[in-house]
Automatic annotation (TrEMBL):
Purpose of the protein: CRISPR (clustered regularly interspaced short palindromic repeat), is an adaptive immune system that provides protection against mobile genetic elements (viruses, transposable elements and conjugative plasmids). CRISPR clusters contain spacers, sequences complementary to antecedent mobile elements, and target invading nucleic acids. CRISPR clusters are transcribed and processed into CRISPR RNA (crRNA). Acts as a dsDNA endonuclease. Involved in the integration of spacer DNA into the CRISPR cassette.
Family as reported in the entry's similarity comment: Belongs to the CRISPR-associated endonuclease Cas1 family.
Origin species: Planomonospora venezuelensis
Keyword Zinc (UniProt): no
Gene designation per UniProt: cas1
One term of GO molecular function: DNA binding
This protein's name: CRISPR-associated endonuclease Cas1
Length: 312
């Protein structure tokens, strides 16, 4: 699963289509003046499919996506807002267990949060003894400075980040592009998190939502990818569409998918070895508090026969 998610295309956004499975493969159907048009999808090469408004999908198509480990994320108009994600079942729990252990310990959770800030701003950005409140303040200052620098570069007199789904079409091109690009980034990070078997809900900086960890990881790349991209589209007439098209190319050039997988592993548990290029699915163990992991698919009835009285 890990090599596939790293080598795959990042995402595909679709709206107002019907996704079906036929004898050839999965295709997106749309009724037009030319009749029933079909576009076949490279299912095995997709990390994430963003299902926008007006999209329907059949159960056989969903099952095929799941078999290929492709994540499905239901999103709002323009790719903004993620409502739900479908997780492939053939995942191990190794990295989820590491994530849960780090999240459950206040000391380790703080260390992971500090590593996230250091990843974004350098090791000097998080001096010894710094609190999360201080790190949030430093983050806000750096992001505002980045906004000012890019606004000057692209000749924008004044920029203020504005995200208002209720007045979506009234926003300026930079805000539209930034919201659309961030939403696509969330979908891709969501797919990588699910591919590792981690929980999108157990965030180290964000909390209170099923997407907390996705927001944590996505923040690592915004200053490098989505924010500069959005400002470069200040004069665009179709900022949302151009943002998604150019973002896919950015993902390919920056090799962002394998970077996301590696970064998540390094942030959660920098001492653990990275997964090899072998497929890690379908590895199931039984847990024992004294013996650790035991093989599954084994009948332990004979071992337990003399140890305790059988209550049944």
């Amino acid at each position: 699963m890990l090599p596939r998610i790293a080598d795959s295309l990042s995402f595909l956004y679709m709206e107002s289509v019907k996704i079906v499975q036929d004898d050839t493969g999965i295709c997106a159907r749309v009724d037009s003046s030319r009749g029933d048009e079909r576009v076949y999808l490279p299912t095995a090469s997709l990390a994430c499919v963003l299902l926008g408004p007006g999209t329907s999908i059949t159960q056989p198509a969903m099952a095929t996506f799941a078999r290929h480990g492709t994540s499905l994320v239901c999103v709002g108009a323009g790719g903004v807002r993620s409502y739900a994600g479908v997780t492939p079942a053939q995942l191990t729990s190794g990295w989820l267990e590491r994530q849960a252990r780090a999240w459950a310990s206040e000391e380790e959770r703080l260390r992971v949060a500090v590593r996230m800030y250091e990843h974004r701003f350098g090791t000097a950005a998080a001096p010894t003894g710094v609190t999360l409140a201080q790190l949030r303040g430093l983050e806000g200052q750096r992001v505002k400075a980045l906004y000012r620098t890019l606004a000057m570069k692209y000749g924008i007199e004044r920029f203020r980040r504005n995200y208002d789904p209720a007045a979506w079409d009234d926003q300026d091109p930079v805000n539209l592009a930034l919201s659309a690009a961030n939403a696509a980034l969330y979908g891709v990070v969501h797919a990588a998190v699910l591919a590792l078997g981690c929980s999108p809900a157990l965030g180290f900086i964000h909390s209170g939502t099923q997407m907390s960890f996705v927001y944590d990881v996505a923040d690592l790349y915004k200053a490098k990818v989505t924010i500069p991209l959005a400002f470069s589209l200040a004069g665009s007439f179709q900022p949302e569409r151009e943002a998604r098209v150019r973002l896919r190319e950015e993902f390919r050039l920056l090799k962002l998918m394998p970077a996301i997988v590696t970064d998540i592993q390094g942030l959660i548990d920098p001492e653990s070895p990275r997964e090899s290029a072998e497929r890690v699915a379908d590895v199931i163990h039984l847990w024992d508090p004294d013996l650790g992991s035991l093989p599954a698919g084994v009948n332990y009835g004979d071992e337990a026969a003399g140890a305790v009285d059988n209550p049944w």
